[in-house]
Amino acid sequence: MSSFGLLALGGNLPSQFGSPIQTLQEALIHLNRNAVHIRAVSRFFQTPCFPKGAGPDFINAAVTIETELSAQDLITELHKIESTFGRQRLTRWGTRPLDIDLIGFETEVLPNASIWTHWRDLPAEQQAQMAPAELILPHPRLQDRAFVLAPLLDIAPDWKHPVTGRSVAQMFGDLPNFAQKEPRPL
């Protein structure tokens, strides 16, 4: 049985496949293999590095997928692809050739609503220092990130967050005006 997932892709360093744009294009080919099937791809966006000033601008995109994999097995597959592209997990929120985040998976809230809420509400300075030991879904900072929401608007504007009930379009509309303008379509 196939499951529906939302992925966010980004990178701001070149890889062996070329520039960040070429890297994302190649990553899409690697994603669309075996048990993962891409159903829609957003436009590419150029976005200031997060946190601001930490490196070159990112190129971001989003995809919708269908997969036979569980959410945990999908994350394992995404990490393998990132590694193929030279991703090293040395610094949280650091520069990288490729980042693929599982943003949402069906209507799953993992590992449970209480732990999800803890990670969503964690202060930004602690988020920058700590990474969860387990998969947290949907992505706990999805609603705060224009660089994820802008590409998702292209392909899944009506997808509803399983905890808040807000659609991608509503979450993007909730962002401050300056944040909405940061991701620039290429």
Automatic annotation (TrEMBL):
Similarity comment: family membership: Belongs to the HPPK family.
Keyword annotations from UniProtKB, A to Z: ATP-binding, Folate biosynthesis, Kinase, Nucleotide-binding, Transferase
Signal peptide: none
Pfam annotation, one family: HPPK
Top-rank lineage group of the source organism: Bacteria
Family annotation (InterPro entries): Hppk, Hppk_sf
EC number(s) per entry: 2.7.6.3
Function in brief: Catalyzes the transfer of pyrophosphate from adenosine triphosphate (ATP) to 6-hydroxymethyl-7,8-dihydropterin, an enzymatic step in folate biosynthesis pathway.
Pathway: Cofactor biosynthesis; tetrahydrofolate biosynthesis; 2-amino-4-hydroxy-6-hydroxymethyl-7,8-dihydropteridine diphosphate from 7,8-dihydroneopterin triphosphate: step 4/4
Family annotation (NCBIfam families): folK
Domain 7,8-dihydro-6-hydroxymethylpterin-pyrophosphokinase: 7-157
The name this protein goes by in its record: 2-amino-4-hydroxy-6-hydroxymethyldihydropteridine pyrophosphokinase
